[in-house]
Give the backbone structure.
Amino acid sequence: MASSSSTDPVLTPTRVQSWNPQQVNTPPQYLGRKTLPIKRADGEPLTRADIQYDLLYFIFADPSRVFVDYMAPGKPHVNFCDLYVNALFNSSKCSKVLKDKMVDTPEFAIEFAKIALLTNVGRINTTMAFFHEMKTPLRSYHPVPSLQKSDGNLQDAPRIKNCLKAALLPFEFKTPPPSTPNEIREKARAGQLPPTSVVNLIFVLSNAQHAMQIAQTHFEPPVEFLDLFLPINLSSASRAKAFLWLVYHYLSASDTPNPFDDDYSRANPGKVPRMVSLSREETQRENVDPSDEVDWGKHMSSLRVRFLKELMDESEAEKRRKRDAQMVPPVSSSFSAAMYSGDITSGRPSQTQGAGSSGGEGSRGSSYGHEVQSHPQAIQQPVPRPAATVGPPQAGGSGQEDQSQDRTMLQHAWHVVQTTDPLADSDGEQDEHVRREYGKSHCCHLRRGGTDPLISPPYARRQTPAHLVSSPRQGPDTPARWPGARRAPVSEPVSGS
């Protein structure tokens, strides 16, 4: 067996001595059934004492071929090891990869069966996993040096438990399997052998609802069924024999003698064989971890710590990338200057717009010239401008803009905000750019046959368009089409703006 080593216990007859049930020393942490699972921190190895390795060894090394394997061809009689391994192999939840590994490496099959038996009775919690590259935070990794010598993947506890729950006999898929010890015994008396699968039997015996019944029927107080798998001062060999006695008692006919009987069980029908109590020194000599397993456990724990550190660094880097992608760059003075100069919209080099050497600084015909002060922590504020003057621009002044240069929409909006007095009359606007833009829109509007109702002096005269005067549907006395419009005489030529 791959799980065997130089420190494995030897199958020798155990000495029989007087045993007082009150001398059983159950550790305080296992007195309550809620603390039955093994409790270890993430990355901490499960020692031989944790899993009671010697007990598992005696259970799976027993050579007695007394159990009927219902799933094997011909229903042969096999030992407990073959019975349990075959039950796992024929589970509907056992994956093909796991089955191939069990066939190719029989040592791994036995190791997997041992960890499955601990899960079957509840010693292995469903939060445990046995491969160090496990990422989910809902699991804790634990190397098991004594059961991982074949380099096989022991899966994790939830997958093992799913495999166990599906390890039923063919007729148990149609009808629910028995769920109490009495139901199992009734099926056996009725001649249905085996009455249930070995996995379901262990689930029933481990159920807390039946713990009192099992203890009163088969054990002497204060020992119960689950005490067989706890680190108590009872010899591993005698506990293994009591476990096998119970399995045979429920899976076989009641009229056949139990091959695991001893003098005590024969003298007390229904009672398990006598279990041998150990002193503290004798208890410490069981389940001893060899040095190579200790070193391997430390190595796997260091690999787990390294993997978690790399996983944490990768997670932090991913969070930083997402945070940087969601950040919006702050608006600074450079953005304000670019918006003012038109670099953002026009894509052209910025042009300095300011007053000439000899014009009015606040001239209505030009942008208000000022220097943009860059500041990395604040948005550029506009410089206060003098009050706008209403009236025609000064002719010949050097402060006038080059009217041949067109502004973009953004530049013109910025210019209007900087130079327009909101309290001044709009009729006094003398901006060449305003007139130019209006001229463009006015020409396009008239080409489409539109009217010009909003134009006001001094840019145009309030006259009726010629096409309204010459309309064949209007007579000389027909009023204009909008209020306030003056109808020009027919003979008077129409003047444009």
